[in-house]
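SAMPLE LOG
Freezer: B-3
Tube label: C17
Construct: single chain, 152 aa
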Amino acid sequence: MRFLIQRVTSAQVDVDGQTVGSIDHGFLVFIGVCNTDTREIADGMVKKLLGLRIFRDENGKTNLSLSDVGGSLLLISQFTLYADCHHGNRPSFINAGSADLANELYEYIISSCKNQIPIVQTGIFGADMAVSIENQGPFTILLDSEEILKKK
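STRUCTURE (predicted):
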């Protein structure tokens, strides 16, 4: 599982010219699922996401979490996070999770986040979305479950 996290002052997602989700201060998170992902992996990734301390404190240090600053989440499914560009110039998406698995885990992640963060907005799974971002910093982090949740 991969989360591409952007610290934003605002973010919005539109489908067919209609806004379906928008936030102010918080994280825009693109979520990629592969075929070996599970709810247990999703739980570990959500825990890491919500624990990230990448907002500035009173001294300007990145020391505050999303909940510390009353931030919001905008969660968007993005299978292209599993693009394989090793051969040729046309990406392969063979490593991306099936639509059924990806949608099930995406909905599970949304539900888990809503249990912990007051404002959680989303895109629409499988839709052609237009995403507008005001990235603060800019500050972008890629969390990959293979690195974050290494077996010991």
